[in-house]
Every structure is written in structure tokens, then in C-alpha cells.
Amino acid sequence: MNKIELRDVVKTYDGKKNILEGISLDVREGEFFILVGPSGCGKSTLLRIIAGLEKISSGALMIDGKIANEMPPKDRNLSMVFQNYALYPHMTVRDNILFGLDVRKVPKAEQKERLAEAAEMLGLTEYLSRKPRELSGGQRQRVALARSVCSHAPICLMDEPLSNLDAKLRGHMRTEIRRIQRQLGLTVIYVTHDQVEAMTMGDRILVLHDGKVQQTGTPLELYNTPANTFVAGFIGSPQMNLAEAELLGDTLVLNHSLAVPLTDAERRNLPEGSHWKIGVRPEQIEFAAPDNRAASTVTLCSTEMMGNETQILFSVGAHTFTARWQGQYLLENGRAIHVQLSPDTFHFFDDETGALLRAALTIKGSDMQSA
Amino acid sequence: MRKAQISITYIILTVAAVLVCFPILFSICLSFSDLNDILQGNYIPSKLDFTNYIHAFQTQPLLRYMINSAITGVLSTTLQITFALLAAYAIVFIPFRGKKIIFLIMMATMMIPGEVLVISNFQTIRAWNLLNTFPGLILPGVASTFGIFLFRQNMMQIPLELKEASTVAGVSDFGFFIRVVAPMVKNTVVTLAIYFFLVSWNSYLWPLLSTTEDTVRTVQIGLRQLKNTEAVSDYGMMAAGAMITSLPTLLLIFFGQKRLQEGMTKGALK
Amino acid sequence: MEYVHAPLHTVEAAPAVQKKRLPLWIIYLLPSMLIFLIFTFYPFVKTLVTSFFATTNTGALTQFIDIQNYVTLFTDPKYLQNLGNTFLYLLLTVPLTVIFALLLAVLSCSNLPGMGIFRTIFSSTMGISVAAGSVFWNLLFHPTAGLLNHIVTAFGSKPVGWLTDANCALLSVSAVSIWMNLGFSYLVLMGGLKNIDDAHYESVEIVGGGFFYRLFKVTIPLISPSLFFVFTTALIGAFQSFGLIDMLTAGGPNNSTNLLVYRLYKDAFVNFRIGSASAQGVVLFLLILLVSQLQTKLTERLVTYQ
Known about the structure:
The structure holds three protein chains of three kinds. Chain A is an alpha+beta fold. Chain A contains nine helices and 21 strands.
């Protein structure tokens, strides 16, 4: 069942510029749904529309199958975790967690029960009598989550809740939040600008850019078949290598400078036309032996040694490509290296619109999926 | 917010706004009215008649008073800001022994109401033959604890590394003060300038004590003079006089409201 | 907020290079310190000393008379009345000023259209001097030409002696005082409200708390620092009221609006009883000290800093 549905939702503040342009989405019950996009793309506005903190300019919002465009926030039966947590400095952790339950007329005894449960779940039991300023950033974050848990609302909206934490804590809280969501069967809509967070946490992800939906899908769908160059560039780290490609005889010329030889099979697999944008993931570019017929010779710009893998940066025309090689390579900058670029691993996008024409046919590592 | 709530908000605010404006609006009406009309209870002037304003300027040297107030305001504002900047700079950026005590002593002066000091200050100024002079009018108030406090708050947000960097670069202490610190607290300077000028223009007790002659008398005391002459029964003229003296500060409030609000908040939040 | 962390700057350990240029700080502090010394500390001590002496007309000390000035003061029924007047005046003006200012600030801090105009109007009285404000209100209060009596008589009652009736004058003066001080209090509270993070209100909206829930559970606790600041400033300001009294009633009728500072002024500069005036100054100082100490204690207990 769809818990939340949006149909052609438009948001504008001045009637001229649209912050959101015709957003449609479905969030299923118990789903962890991610809204991701660069800053200013409208994702927070979208979340606030669902919360009822912003009005819809046109379109429809449905919660539990009922039109909810004009429904006041309190009737939507949801909780929200804010980026800065919205903890009240004058209240203790206990009162902060219980905030709002008195408005909803929850009996005292039940409040106590819920508090104990939420505090236990988030490991806050010892801190209940403290004030927010006496807590660390991570603890404050937990209080904000506990407030949400305590509300027993089936829907939880989260607006970049981890962005104020350091990297290590963020990783820990990611699993924590998912654990709680599964345990309580919450429907979560989670806003983030961090694609790693989106990939690791989401059941499904919606990529938003310039107020428009770019793609909705599971993390792997987004990774393996990005709907356009924006999604291709946004999802995955290091970024997908994007280049202009032109078919000249038997070769595919990238950025007017690097020729990639085509086998007959590869040639047959090309989409229609002769000019495209192509994208290739760093891990699909392989080290090649110099005598390999399919190898391309490129000039090394620099290497980034990560320990277990090496990122190889080389130039293709005006752009720099990144390749990810397992193992440790100590190479001089500026020397020629041989890489294998296989057109079957390329994503082809329309030259003008950037829309996906043909996804990569072989994806290294994708055979692991079923295993 | 619901529609009903918004309507109630507007109604309350409108009523309150009318009440707050009322004394001023009433005086504006009177200032353009003929005395006979006023006495008969016709407060709404039929035409824009500036007679009362002209009278106000003729009866008392109002223009002179306004110039005096302006001179006093500009001088005392400039000095208060300069002195406060210097003192705050020393407290924040120059390490020395007893800094804490000096700062606490300065803050303690906030506890002493100016009214307690006027008797003795009057004697001092009189002994220095400064009664009826601008220095006599200005001097007792040119050290501002509030200003020092606000500047200190502001300067503490400037990273100490900036000072260290300029020391390494060979910039003198005063150079750092002028070229780095002063520009960085510009906003506070503007806020305080508005505030100090407002306070100076509107101050009452000290100008009343320290001036007895028209040459330096400020506009507030001029208004008091106006009230204590037979002119007091010329209501239209009184209103006109009060309007004239309020105009500069009202304008200052209209344009500086935001700045003041931000600055005052800083003061309140320590 | 950042400035909470700022005390890091009060570094005690001076870099060795600075040691040689020790007198530098004196130069920066000298102007302010001199002024404080001459026009604050010296007169304060002098007032304190003078309050234990008999004086000539010009304020020269003639004879040490112990606490005689204070005894005379507190056995003078008129002075006790001045004290009573002042406390009544505080009670009438301070709470109402703060409550009105808070209410108006809360109602006008939204982004609804036209709020800018309201904000300008409500803060405008800060730009009105005591002298001008008094003239405005004098015209309203005027027994025959004033608007208030026109309204009162239009409703069929007898004209009111707003400033001339001893039962009513302090009330009238208090009304003017509230009006005069509204602007400042409003401006400070508005600044406090602007600093509240919207997320705090949105949390209330999501749980469905109404106007009063929001006001008492969120707004007031969150602006408690500004609220206390406004309260104390209003209280100290009310203790120091002088201009209004001088312009509106000159302490009359029948001593009914004679407040502490006006009495001090009269004794010092009209009756030339410098010794007694000094004692009054000390009493005033002690009262204000008491109030601000009380405020500090209360602040520590009740105010929330973020």
C-alpha cells in the first residue's frame, strides 16, 4: 500500500519561478525512502510540503490514500527530525523527548512507558535529566530521534539529520537509524545531499535536481542504469567519467582525442546515431598489457594511493578520467600507461538531452548480486 | 496559521498601532491647526498651515537648539565610539596583568545610576568653568560601559590568529587595530552610533543642569523652556515645537530600526 | 552560538615579545579610564562621603554628622511618600510595558504582509524624547483643550483632572511612561524572537500545539534572556524617571507624583540641600543594586542560554 503519494506537485513562492516542478512519487508503507540531490534542488521544500509546513501551489498530496493538501501538520500523524535537531535548550532531555505528547493528550503512564522504550532504544537512559547543552553532538542527534520514536507516528520525516556529525559517527548512526526504522516498521522519508548516505540507507531513492525528479529507483538501479547524465554523475564515488563520444569508422573517439577500438560485437551493440555522451565507471577501466589489441595509451596525470586500491587519473582530451585499480601502483606522473576501455561497459546518453540511450551491458561485480 | 488566527492578529495589531501612534498623530493635527479651532474642539486641520511651525521657530531659538543638539550628538557619539573601541581592543587583544579586574571595574559602573553622580559632576564642571560649554555638556558621558561591552563581545569573535598573523607580518599594534579590528566591528559601530546619537539627542537631566544659556542649550531643554513660558497655552505651537525636535530621531529610528534591534539583542544576550 | 566559546581569547599567557611593550594597553584604556575615574568613581565616592556631612549651599562639607542625613530622610513623611510613589510607579509601569511589548512582538514577528509597518510603528516611540513625548501627552491631557476630556465629556461624565487630580496623576504619568518605553522593549524582544530557530516552531506545529502552548512552552522560555534584560532595564529606568515628572507634573499635585530622582534634583539644585540629596543618591544606588542583584540571581535560575 502506498503510504504517501504525490501527484504533479508544484511549488512556487512568487508565481514565476517554480521551486518544484510537477513532482510525483509513491512511498510504500514501511519503506525507507530517500530524497537526494545537490543543495538548492528543492528536496527540503518537498519534505516540508509532506510535513505540511509549506503549502502546495498545485498538485495533490495523499497520505494513507486521502487527499492531504490542506491537512494541518498535526493531523498528518507524522514526526520530523530537523537538521539542527530543534531541541529546546530550556528543557531536559526527558522533556525534549516527550515534547508534544501532552498536546496529543497521551496519558502520563503511557508517556512514561514510551519514554523508557525510546530512551532504551537510543541509549539515552542515563542522560534524561540533562539539558541539551550538556550533551555531545551525537547524543543530541539521538534525542531528536528519540522524540520521533516516542511520538509513535507511523511516518517519520528526516531533514539531513546526520549532516552535523563527524564522519565516523555518521557511519554509525546510519546503521542505527535503519535498525530503528526496521524494528518499528516506520515509513521514513529521508532528505540528504550525500549520495553515500542515499546508497547505503535507502530502500528506494529519488534523485531531485532543479526541482525535477531525475530518477526514482533502488540504489542499484540508480547505479547500474542511471536515467541521465545528471544521475550518472551524481551517484557513485569517485564520479562516473563522462565524455563526448563520436563514432569514426571502427573507433569510438572520446573528447576528440582518445580513440577506443571497437570489436564487431561492440559495434553492433551501439545505440543509433554517431554522436553521444558516454559514461564509464572508474572500476570498469582496467589495467591493460601493452600488447593488448584493445588497449588505449594515455598519459598519467596523477595517482591517489588508497592502500587497498589506487585511483589513476589520466587525461582524455580536456577532461580527466579516473580509474580504480585494485592493489598498489607506484607510477610516475606524466608517463604513458595502458588502459582498457570496453565500450560494452559504457553508458550511452543522448548528446543533447542527456537521457540514457543504452546502459552498460556488462557491469563488473554485478554477477555477485544473486550470490 | 489558520485564517481566523490571522484576522485576530491583524485586528489586535491595528488597534495597538492606532493607540501607539495616537499621541503623535494628535500632535501633528494640532500643529497644523488654528488655536481657535483647537479651543472649540476641531482637531482636524482644514488645510496645511505652517504658521505654528514658523511661530515655534520665532518664539524660541529652536534652530540654534537643534544645531546645538546636533553638535553635542555628533561629538559625544564620535568620542564614545572611539574610546570604547580603544578600551575594548586593549581588553581583548593586549595581554596584561589585571585585565580581568579592570574589566570588572568598568562593568561595575553600570550599577551606578547617572542620577547619583550629577550632583558632584555638576560641581566638577562648574569648578572647571565648563558650565554652558560643549565640553561640559559632553565630557561626563563619553566613556560608555555599554559600548565597551558590546565591542568586546564583537572583538572576541575575531580569531586571535589574525592578530598573530599581523604580528608576524610586522604590522604594528595600532596598525592592526585600525586596519583589521575596526573594519571588522563596523556593524557594531553603526548600531552604537545610532544608539548613542539617540540617547544624546534625547538626554534631559544633564543638559538641564549644565546649560543655562541659549548658545549651548539643547533642543530638549529648549522644549522645556517653551513649556515654561506663556507659549504653553499656544497648543498648536507647542505641538509644532515637539514635532520638530522629534523629527531627526524618528527618522533615525525608521532607518536604523533593524540595526538597533540586532545590536540590542547582542547586548541582551551577553 | 559562537560567542559562547569566545572567552578562549582572554588568554593569560602573554607571548614573550609583548612583554617589552607593556605600557601599550594603558594608552588604549586611558581615555575611558580617565573619564570613569573623574566622572563616575570620584563623584560616587564623593556622594557617599557627602551623605554623612552637613553642607553649605554650594556643597562644601561643613561637619561630619554621622547618619543624620539618612535619619532625617527616613523620618520625613514626604520622602516616605516619594518612596511609596516610586514603588507604585514601578508596579504600574514595568510589568505592563514588558507584557505589551512581548504581546506586540509575538504578534508582529511573522512574515505576514504589512508586519514591517507595524514593527516601525511599535518601535517608533524609542525615537521620541521625554520632552517631546511629554508635550504630546500634555496636549491630550489638557483639562479644557485636550482630546481625552473631550471624549470623556462626550460620554456624559465630568472632565477628569488627568494631571491635576492627586488620585489620578500618577496613573496618567505611568501611562505616558509605558508608551515611552514600549519602543525599546519591543525592539529588544523582537530581536530575541528573530533569533529563535524556525524548527522550534515547526516542531510545535507538527505536534499541533496552539497559540498559547507555543507562547508559554517555546517562545517565552527561548527569549527569557531578552525578557530579563528588558525587565531589568525597565525597572532601573523606572527608578531613574525624571524628565517625565519634570515636564508633566513637577512632582505635583500634592507630592503625588514626586519620585526619588525628581526629589533628589529638587533638593540638590533648587533647595541646595546637598547633604540630603547625596544621601538620597546613595539610597537610590542601593535600591538599584538590590534590584540588579536580584535579577542576576533570578537569571541564573530561570534563564536559558542556548
